[in-house]
Amino acid sequence: MKQSEIREKIISAVYTANFLTDSGITFEYADVLEDSFEEEYENISSFAKSLYVKSLINQDEAIKNIQSNLTKWSFNRLNRVIQAILITAYTERNVINETDKKVIINEYIELSKKYGDANDYRLVNSVLDKVLN
User: Fold this and answer.
1) Is the whole model's pTM more than 0.90, yes or no?
2) What 8-state DSSP symbol labels residue 41?
């Protein structure tokens, strides 16, 4: 599976986990990842597991840093998919830090074009350029 496909599935898993948490629904984090990948947890790559878990663990830090770089916006008012994209991109670069900043920005811009509104990719580009190390 390509890294871009893994990122897409992780965004889905982060989105789902945050939606379920905010809705007060009890769930198993591993089940969400299995559902996103349509595979047993043991068969999911270590990179995918790491990005998923670290995105959830470090999301308060990510949100704080993203929020401080939003102008005229509040993180909570952003589309939930865009929130998941920003959190996951932040984690991949600033926590895991194995991929070049330009690659991450380009990958997540493409995902925001696919899943966001018409101009969301501009916001994603601007914010990621500021918050990624």
Assistant:
1) yes
2) G
**Which two structure tokens, joined as six digits, stand for 105?**
């920005």
Measured distance CA(66)–CA(118) in Å, rounded? 20
User: Are 112 and 85 spatial neighbours (Cβ–Cβ below 8 Å)?
Assistant: yes
Residue 31 Cα to chain centre, angstroms:
18
Eight-state DSSP code of residue 43: G
Mind listing the pLDDT tens digit for each residue in 27-45? 999 999 999 999 999 999 9
Of residues 18, 9, 11, the one with CA closest to residue 39: 9
- Identity at 64, one-letter amino acid code: K
* Most distant pair of Cα atoms in the chain: their distance: 43
pLDDT tens per residue, range 50-69? 999 999 999 999 999 999 99
